[in-house]
Amino acid sequence: MENMDVIFGKNSITEALIAGNREINKILISKNIHNDAKINKIKELAQEKGIVFQFVAKEKFQPYAEFNHQGVIALISPITYTDLDEFLESREHTNSSLVILDGIEDSHNLGAIIRTCVCAGVDGIIIPSRRNVQINSTVEKVSAGAINHIPIIKVNSPVNAVQKLKDNNWWIIATDASAKDNYYDVKYDDMNFAIIMGAEHAGVSKSLLKASDFIVKIPMQNSFNSLNVSNALSAIIFETLRQKLKKNK
Predict the structure, then answer these.
(1) Residue among 194, 129, 205 nearest 166 (CA)
(2) Residue 228's domain is classified under what CATH number?
(3) What is d(CA 240, CA 23) in angstroms, rounded to the nearest whole number?
(4) Rounded to an integer, what distance in angstroms lies between the CA atom of residue 80 and that of residue 154?
(5) Which of 55, 149, 165, 216 keeps 20 to 30 A from 91, CA to CA?
């Protein structure tokens, strides 16, 4: 059985996994289920396909109480993700741009980021398959339809994705509050670049900071808490657009 971004029930989820025609973000399995052959099959298929599954308390199933979920729910994406290799092959490699998200947890932030990226002409967005919110109905709604106008690239390892970009003549720009350089000091208009944004509480991971070519900050006038990640991205991404438009005048 299926409803919006969720598939319910053992048979329906097994069939979806075998068919492979739905983008499954995560599978939730009730902690109360033990030694169940159909659940074991779902776990096996999920592992083969690299799909995250987790055991959760029965309270997680409360919103779906009206459905016969049988203690298992698959959260599906309303979009089809783009493959990074296919994206790179499709680009002309002349001042292309990407945004890489590292640990964004809020669906509203992700939706707002997608909307901003489309408005500013960003060529694609990379999100990790773990420890980052995935595309769901809330993201789709907040993006105001923008989600249908930009490739969303899901990767298992952001560090490997960054290395692949560097191998293909892309420059990597990470954001960090303690950086020495300001975001507007980078010359964005003559290179392919990817901007890495981290979550407010954690920032960009050390491994991605280490792999970056530039680390930049948004200067602040006082010690008030940092900007919301979607607002911070807007400041940076529209500066890249300003430079591009100025060069093309």
Answers:
(1) 194
(2) 3.40.1280.10
(3) 32
(4) 10
(5) 216
Phi, psi of 206, rounded to the nearest 5 degrees: -60, -35
Identify residue 9 by its one-letter amino acid code. Answer: G
Q: Token pair for residue 81?
A: 């993700």
* CA 8 to mean position of chain CA atoms: 24
Q: Note the pLDDT tens digit of each residue in 161-201.
A: 999 999 999 999 999 988 999 999 999 998 999 999 998 77
Of the residues 45, 76, 107, the one at which a domain ends: 76
CATH of the domain at 30: 3.30.1330.30
Q: Kindly report the pTM of this predicted structure.
A: 0.78
pLDDT digits (tens, 9 = 90+) for 123-166: 999 999 888 888 887 888 888 888 888 999 999 999 999 999 99
Lookup: tokens for 143 = 């993006």
Q: What is the CA radius of gyration of the chain?
A: 20
Same domain, 215 and 100: yes
Do 57 and 31 form a contact (C-beta atoms < 8 A)? yes
Looking at residue 76, the DSSP 8-state letter turns out to be: E
Same domain, 90 and 174: yes
